[in-house]
Design goal:
The protein is α/β, with parallel strands linked by helices. The C terminus is likely disordered. The protein is 50% helix and 13% strand. Strands 3-2-4-1-5-6-7-8 form an 8-stranded mixed sheet, sandwiched between helices. The structure holds guanosine-5'-triphosphate and magnesium ion.
Length: 311
Amino acid sequence: MSLAGRLRAGLRRTAEHLTARLAAITGAERRAGAAPDSRSTLAALEELLIEADVGVAATERIVAGVREAAEPGADPRELVRREMLDILDRPSIDAAPAAAPRVVLVVGVNGTGKTTTVGKLAHRWRLDGEKPLICAADTFRAAAVPQLDAWAGRAQVDVIKAGARADPAAVVFDSVQAGRARGCSVVIVDTAGRLHTRADLMAELGKIRRVAGRAAEGAPHEVLLVLDATVGQNGLVQARQFLDTAGVTGVVLTKLDGTAKGGVAVAIAGELEVPIRFVGVGEGLEDLLPFSAVDYVEALFGAGDRGDGRS
Ligand SMILES: Nc1nc2c(ncn2[C@@H]2O[C@H](COP(=O)(O)OP(=O)(O)OP(=O)(O)O)[C@@H](O)[C@H]2O)c(=O)[nH]1
Ligand SMILES: [Mg+2]
C-alpha cells in the first residue's frame, strides 16, 4: 500500500466522522436555503470541529476563514479543507547537518508509543540507507529492554543497553560513543515514560540532554515528543510541559488508527511551535509515516472528492 493509502486507512474513523457530519450540515443548510457563512452553518461547523478535537483556537481560525471566504454556492467542506491545510502546512525546520552520529531523543508520557516509534524509526531510516543504533535509556521499567530488543530485531538494528536501574544519561553517553565507533549515522534513544507534571523526572531529561551534548556536539539534534492521538486535547497540555523543559523539536502523533480524534493534528499544528514530524497508524513496523499536510487533509476529506453536494 502507498504511504497516502496507509494514511487514508489509518485516518478512516476520523474522516468518516468529519465528512458524514459536514455532509449533513451542508445538506441541511442547502435545503433550508442557507449560505455557507450563515450563522447556523457556522455554529454547526464550530461544534463539529470541537468534537473532532481540532481545539478551540484552530476551530475559531477555521470558522473565521470560512466566514470570510464564503461566496454564494461555495461548499463549506472545501472551505474547511482549505483552512485546515493552511494551519497544517508549516515550513519544516531543517536541522543543521550534524557530525555523525546524530542523536534523536524520543520522549513522552507513559504508554504513548515511544518504544514502538523507536523501532519503526530505526526500520524506516535503515531502509533509507542510514545506519541506526538504538539506545535503551528506559532503565526504569523492567520489561522495557526486552520490548525494545524485540523491536530492534524486527528493524534489524543493534541496541546498546545497561543493567536495570542504571543511570539513563550514562547509557546515552555510552550509546553515542558506540555509535561513533561503529560508524552509525543516527542513535535513536528510547526513554522511560514520564508524567509531564513530575518535576524530578522532567529534570532527568535535562540531564540526559546535557550528557548527550557532552558525548556529541550539538546533541540531542532532535527531540521527538510522542503524543497519543486518542488522548486528544489533553496531549497539548503534556506537550507544553515537554516543550518547555525537554527542548522538543518535533511531534510524533501515534494511534491515529482506531480513533475519531485525528483532528487533534490541526490543534497541535496551530498551537505548538514545533512541527509534526511523523504519524503512527498501526502497531506494525511499517506503520509510521512522515507527516505531510497535503496528504493528511486529503486523507481526512477523501482525495478527489471535491464535495459536489452528494454524500
Ligand atoms: N494502534 C496503534 N497502536 C500503537 C501505535 N503506536 C503504539 N501503539 C501501541 O501502544 C502501546 C504502547 O506502546 P509503547 O511503544 O510500549 O509505548 P511507550 O510510550 O514506550 O510506553 P512506556 O515505555 O511504558 O511509557 C503498544 O500496545 C503499542 O502497540 C499506533 O500508531 N497505533
Ligand atoms: Mg517504552
